[in-house]
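hey so i finaly got around to running the thing on OTOP1 protein from Rhinopomastus cyanomelas. pasting the sequence first so u can double check i didnt mess up the copy paste, my clipboard has been acting weird all day
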Amino acid sequence: MEKVSGSPSAGGSYPQKTAEILSSQYGINLFLAGLLLTFAWAVHAVGISKSHLLSYLITLMLIQLLWMLWYLSRSCTQRRLIRDKDTHAGARWLKCGITLFAVITLILDSFKIGYYIDFSNCLSPTEGIFPVAHAVHTILQVYFLWCHAKDIIQSFKTLERFGVIHSVFTNLLLWTNGVLTESKHQLNEHKERLITLGFGNITIVLDDHAPQCNCTTTTLCSVFSQGIYYLYPFNIEYHILASTMLYVLWKNIGRKVEHHQQHKTPFSLHGITVGMIFGLVVLTSTIAIVVVYLIQIGRSKIKSELALTMFYLHAIFVLALMCTAGIVALLIYRLEDRSLDNSKNPARKLDAELLVGTAAGSWLLSWGSILAIICAQAHPKYTWYNLPYSILVIIEKYIQNLFIIESIHREQEKVNDDIKTLRIVTVSQGSTLSLTPSYKEIYNGRATRDRGEVPCLFKGTICARETDSSGGAKEEMSEESSSVIHSASDFSFCSRNSVTNNKRRILKNIAAFLFLCNLSLWIPPAFGCRPEYDNGLEEIVFGFEPWIIVVNLAMPFSIFYRMHSAASLFEVNCKT
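ok and heres what it spat out for the 3d tokens, dont ask me to read them lol
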């Protein structure tokens, strides 16, 4: 095991490439073993119980806890050393997002502990140990990601590769466990809804592994059992976000980076009012639709059909708006002449791959629905709305992926290196008054200065001075001068810069609108509003079991796509 590599090609040498391959294979085998154990429990395999699965997950979490404690203690002893950081990884807004999901996950763990106490007579002790271990794991992992998500590890690289990849696949297994548990709950409700729609020929019995004993406190048991399933969507997002952040950390081990300061672009609400208003309208209406859907679906055949029709019409309208906004943004990009940043960046590459990879889940469901509509012999009225909805889902994701991927690869405009200082000078009674401009003022005046012109001003005319790197200055004095400069708001920039600013403002509004729309479209499937389950047409064409398997495999990726798109669009808004 090497402690510090002196090779100039650290991260690309043969031993390090071997360590990367070995660690990745270790993680994959770890994940496959857990996946098979999860599947065996789900299908009631002989000799496999839930306690075996939970014991395996607890063991993985304890190993990760030991590694994180070792890493934190070693980092504490070396805190004075200057370390390389990946400025693109572990953005503050991403850390805040994962912290929010982690807090809700801790509430979920507390509900599980309460549920175990009420059913302790017939539950395995591992079901009480698991939420406690998971809560400790969550707290330490969030702290670790806040402090070290940007690290580029250059010491103990072989050991760290195994530790990080172990953490990645531990979170993926915890995500899989959450998805399975939540899906089993949804399937039980799904069968009841299909019966109300007239599909009474479905005879499959679904088991939710309910405890075989009475609860000690009926009211609390009801609160815990129902509340757990409303909190699972946040737990699922927490683990998938944690695994992606840890994967970037793993890819950065031994990486050589250029030592340059990245320009920070904090989020601002200035100039995105229109996009925020339209986005909030979509978000509010979506929440209302989901509430009505969950109340009406399964009550009766008429109410269920009305709920499905209402959902499809609302989704068609929102998706059409999103397609239009995405097309406008892409047209603006076609009108601009700006190069793309093709430098090596693990975080950006992972973002693009996740967008396309997780979109495939929605595309699979959409093509399944389209095929079912074409092949079905009978078509209830509400199922025809599913056709434009499915087509728009495919088109919208296609357009949105193009917009996001191009946005995160576009180079930010920079100020010319030879421009160091711009001073605005006025002469009044023989005295000189100077004003130091902001970065924005320097940037917006750049084009006209390159042509030998002076930026347009609101009041009077001025003397402009451009100071070069040698300290010399060139001054151009106007024949007339104004007496006072009241504020920086007195500037009005030339038409070329005005057009550029208008384009940027439109792009920021589009990004803000799409951000809120993706949050809105994350809510329905995450909280049980899933027409792919409830319309019944696909089950008739493909069969109940095959279609349910397809939905259960594709739906988690579809849900994650919306949250990941929202996170990427937030970054686009900050960068634009």
